[in-house]
Amino acid sequence: MVVHFYRKLRTQSEFLGLTTAGLATLACGKPERLEQTLETASMEEKQAVEFITAHVQAIKPLAIKKNLASWVAANSGKPEDYDKLSALQLKIRQVYSNPEDFVLVKSLKESGKVKDAIQARQIDRLYNAYLENQIEPELLKKIVDLSTEIEKNFSTYRAAIGGERVTDNEIREILRAETNSAKRKQTWLVSKQVGQVVYADLIRLVKLRNQAARKVGFDNYHTLSLTTSEINVEELDRIFDQLDKLTSESFSALKSELDGHLADMYGVKVEELAPWHYHDPFFQEAPLIYGLDLDSYYQNKDVKELSVRFYASIGLDVESIIARSDLYEREGKNPHAFCTDIDRQGDVRILCNIKNNHYWMGTMLHELGHGVYDKFKDPQVPYLLRTPAHIFTTEAIAMLFGRLAYNTAWIQQMLELSDEQRMEIEKVSSKYAKLGQLVFARWVLVMYNFEKQLYANPDQDLNSIWWKMVERYQFVKKPKDRDAPDWAAKIHFTVAPCYYHNYMLGELLASQLHHHVVHNILRLESDRDVCYVDQREVGDFLREKVFESGAVYHWNDMIERAAGEPLTPKYFADEFVN
Ligand SMILES: [Zn+2]
Questions:
Q1: For residue 37, what pLDDT is reported?
Q2: How much is the average pLDDT of 6-35?
Q3: In the chain, fewer beta carbons within 10 Å around the N or the C end?
Q4: CA 7–ligand 1 middle distance (angstroms)
């Protein structure tokens, strides 16, 4: 299941479901061919085929049940439906925590004698899935209990301003609209109070996770987590260092401009700007100060119809997805959006809460991006590999299409606007896209580098490390004498550990694929006016080079095969820097 939090929240249960769901399968259902190959196969290869076959027979029906239970729960919101889901998630987890199976998979992997690439790839994926679940039951229980406890504190803690309790949404609204600096400061401080409540437990949780990682031979949980998700820590460091260098100057210039506007709005000097002047409590989104109202263009439009028509125009039919989906608001229903692949053989659904406005246009394009990736995988690919190459590669496709909601050529063509209307939008939309992407990139650099430090040594002075990172990457000054666990107020450290980098990798890949499409598929000099509408070759390229192979190749091999080189931040910089 691909949950679309839009970088906001995810629950522990969804997270567990996600890490174990991306697995299991049968060799490709052609017994004659299989027997022939087996005659010349090594003992290890025979064992691998047997293990994979038995494993898929066990896991596939469980995974389908779990996905259906998750769908039912998200649609009903009933506690008993969530209980059913938790029970199924636990069952799946139990499969992957079996120590004897792990020993066998490990020996098959380490023997080097499983030569068939598809089998070896399945064994690798199984190895990672088992490895991350080899935590003794007692330690696992401690970890789950403690993270549930912290999560509960997050959801029940109500900050108070002057004795009056405020919700997260109220805090956001004040930080968006309030012009009095003192009130902004007070509200920002209140938004960080939860950090004080949870930080000691969170540090304990980090230590427990590290303890589990050390038992399976890793220096800490951060390294384990990245390794089992097939990401090499040094390589990610290199990519993010490069991203830092590529975006630093341009971000600095845009932020100076932004600071000028904010200082005017709040009647303070630029030097007096503080963290509470940037609308989002963590400055992870661009403040909406340039006046862009795209909603009015959607008043008499149908977001669902626009989505279906657009995807059909690039040769990726989404009717079968729409027919199974749940698209509109209802009491009790999950208010967010996600896409789920129920059975890896065509039952793909999205959950949305559509209103005819700009936000839901972008969200529909995004979710259906996940949807087409899931729908157009080659059914011949073994079940265990019939998933996206990586969680961030499906995020990339969703982002590639979601970005169209800010693409003025796309808006003009799909909404039939005049040139004047388009010019009106263009004045601010590209600025927002750029500012939004750079603000987010710099924020991810804080999250990634801080979390790495957090797991490397949870006993160091985390409060000051956090602010050093914020000053270095976001150019936001630490308030004088501030020494508080502001970092702990970010719920992701608790419920989605070592995951945040995937959002950024998705953005980088979206830009890389866009660049490749423009220059090598459409053979254009620049992406001016490119919006994909009616260009079937775009859909063909993605289907053939990205979707169909599923996870047959390691994500970086898939990217190299599709776009001619491994993942790089340079095309993200081309698109959003300068
Ligand atoms: Zn998504």
A1: 55
A2: 35
A3: C
A4: 9
What is the helix (H) or strand (E) element at residue 340, kind and residue range? strand 337-341
CA of 397 from ligand 1 middle (Å) equals 9
Among 105, 110, 16, 24, residue whose Cα is nearest residue 59: 24
Q: Which residues pair with 4 in a beta bridge?
A: 337
Q: Please report the pLDDT score of residue 39 as a whole number.
A: 61
Q: 113: buried, middle or exposed (CB in 10 Å: 19+, 13-18, 0-12)?
A: middle
Asked if 397 and 559 touch (Cβ cutoff 8 Å), the reply is no
- Closest to 294 (Cα-Cα) out of 400, 439, 433: 433
Residue 154 CB-half CA count within 13 A: 22
Q: What is the pTM of this model?
A: 0.91
Ramachandran bin of 460, using left for φ above 0, alpha for ψ from -120 to 50, beta for the remaining angles: beta
**pLDDT tens track for 60-79:** 999 999 999 999 999 998 88
Using the predicted structure, report yes or no on whether residue 4 has a pLDDT greater than 70.
Answer: no
The set of residues, in sequence order, having a beta carbon less than 8 Å from that of 385 and lying 6+ positions away, is 25, 118, 121, 122, 125, 550, 551, 552
Mean pLDDT of 359-387: 97
Tell me the two tokens of residue 286.
């661009």
3-class secondary structure, 497 = coil
From ligand 1's centre to the CA of 20, what distance in Å? Answer: 18
Both tokens assigned to 334: 């999950």
Chain Cα centroid distance, residue 462: 25
343 with 65: CB under 8 angstroms? Answer: no
Spacing, Cα 570 to ligand 1 middle (Å)? 22
Q: Mark 526-549 as b/e (b = at least 16 C-beta within 10 Å).
A: ebeebbbbebeebbebbbebbbeb
Radius of gyration of the chain (CA): 24
CB 161 within 8 A of CB 252: no
pLDDT at 156: 82
Find the 390 Cα to ligand 1 centroid distance in Å: 12
Query: In the structure encoding, which two tokens stand for residue 568, read together?
Result: 């790089």
* Confidence band for 176, pLDDT divided at 50, 70 and 90: confident
Strand partners, 3: 338
Ligand 1 center–CA 258 separation, angstroms: 28
Cα–ligand 1 centroid distance for 336 (angstroms): 11
Residues 6+ apart with CB under 8 A from 241: none
Rounded percentage of the chain residues whose pLDDT exceeds 90:
78
409 φ/ψ sector (left φ>0, alpha ψ -120 to 50, else beta)? alpha
- DSSP H helical ranges for 274-402: 303-313, 319-324, 358-375, 391-402
One-letter amino acid for residue 36 of the chain? Q
The enclosing H or E element of 336 equals none
> 194 versus 166: which is more confidently predicted?
194
pLDDT for the residue numbered 172: 86
* Coil, strand or helix at 459: coil
Q: How far, in Å, CA of 279 to CA of 174, rounded?
A: 8
271 Cβ contact list (under 8 Å, min separation 6): none
- Cα–Cα distances in Å, from 52 out to 35, 37, 101, 250? 15, 15, 11, 50
